[in-house]
Write a structure and sequence with these properties.
2 domains; single chain; about 40% helix; D-Maltodextrin-Binding Protein, domain 2; alpha/beta; 5-stranded mixed β-sheet
């Protein structure tokens, strides 16, 4: 009898292991879900993730696990190597698309093929900031000044390959201007140097800079978006400010390990879409100048691919190099 029971247990376990993904998805989730955020708590990525997960209902709790470091690579590798069983997910931002090119051949995973996009959650357009000492008040004037004074404008970023750095390179490529990159270890010291006039330009999302703009400590020239952004409506678009239409943002995207059952990915994508219709969530995102999206998995795949191609061209043309 004992042998029969053991054989039965083994048979059931084997059947479960080889059960179709659709069948496993029907019983999902049976336990709490780990959500890896590859940045520190309190920032834009962490905040948008937590606010969105609060509005998603799958019958189990989401446990946010902050794993910062190495330009998001530490957290991304954890999820890339996690079992594709629907119990580990990841939040990424624009840097993830750039990492495909920046770290080509240097990673133990692929920023695209190692994951299954779940949803483009929201978009935080990048804002062009200048020091109060720089004699420009519009993007048109900034471009004219940069052309008349090649190499005299220094722009900061949170590091080589960061969204601020690559977007500044994109601006130079489109406008034919030459400015000098000054990389920092984070946005805070770069913003401090902008306020003191040690650098003349900095690109960043509104969540960490609007308070300084409204206090008059730095000047915001434009938002790099087609339309004005809720939560920062007083800032003109780049076209309204006399510049070319160059869109750039620090978007937030949910990902799963490659091979995660499509039914689970689709269900989570649907939950994100529902969450983005919640008025209280939309207001909280607007307070951080984040535009809610809630794209389907298929739409998210296309968006990610377009971002990878966009930044590959910028990185290649600018010759940006980074150590793995």
């Amino acid at each position: 009898m004992t042998k029969l029971n053991r054989r039965s247990v083994l048979a059931v376990s084997a059947a479960a292991a080889f059960a179709p993904s659709s069948l496993r998805a029907q019983t999902w989730p049976a336990k709490s879900i780990r959500w890896v955020v590859p940045y520190t708590a309190g920032g834009l990525t962490d905040s948008v993730t937590r606010l969105t997960l609060e509005k998603m209902n799958v019958g189990q709790t989401f446990v946010v696990d902050n794993k910062p470091g190495a330009n998001s690579l530490i957290g991304a590798e954890i999820v890339a190597n996690a079992p594709p069983d629907g119990y580990t997910f990841l939040t990424v931002i624009a840097a993830h698309a750039a990492n495909k090119t920046l770290y080509a051949g240097k990673l133990k995973f692929d920023p695209v093929t190692s994951f299954a996009p779940v949803s483009l959650v929201g978009i935080a357009p990048i804002m062009i900031l200048v020091s109060n000492d720089l004699p420009v008040k519009t993007v048109g004037e900034l471009i004219a000044y940069a052309k008349a004074n090649p190499g005299k404008i220094s722009f900061g970023s949170s590091g080589v390959g960061a969204a601020a750095h690559l977007t500044s390179e994109l601006i130079m490529q489109v406008t034919g201007t030459k400015m000098v990159h000054v990389p920092y270890k984070g946005t805070a010291p770069a913003l401090a140097d902008l306020m003191s006039g040690n650098i003349q330009m900095l690109l960043d999302v509104p969540i960490g800079t609007m308070s300084q703009v409204r206090a008059g400590k730095v000047r915001a020239l434009a938002m790099m978006s087609k339309e004005r952004v809720p939560g920062a409506e007083e800032i003109p678009t780049i076209v309204e400010s006399g510049g070319p239409l160059i869109e750039s943002s620090s978007w937030v995207m949910f990902m799963a390990p490659a091979g995660t059952p499509k039914e689970i990915v689709d269900r989570l994508g649907g939950e994100v879409a529902k969450a983005m219709k919640d008025e209280s969530l939309r207001k909280r995102l607007a307070s951080q100048a984040v535009i809610p999206v809630g794209a389907t998995p298929a739409e998210t795949v296309k968006f990610l691919q377009s971002e990878v191609e966009k930044w590959e061209k910028v990185i290649t043309k600018a010759g940006v190099k980074i150590d793995a």
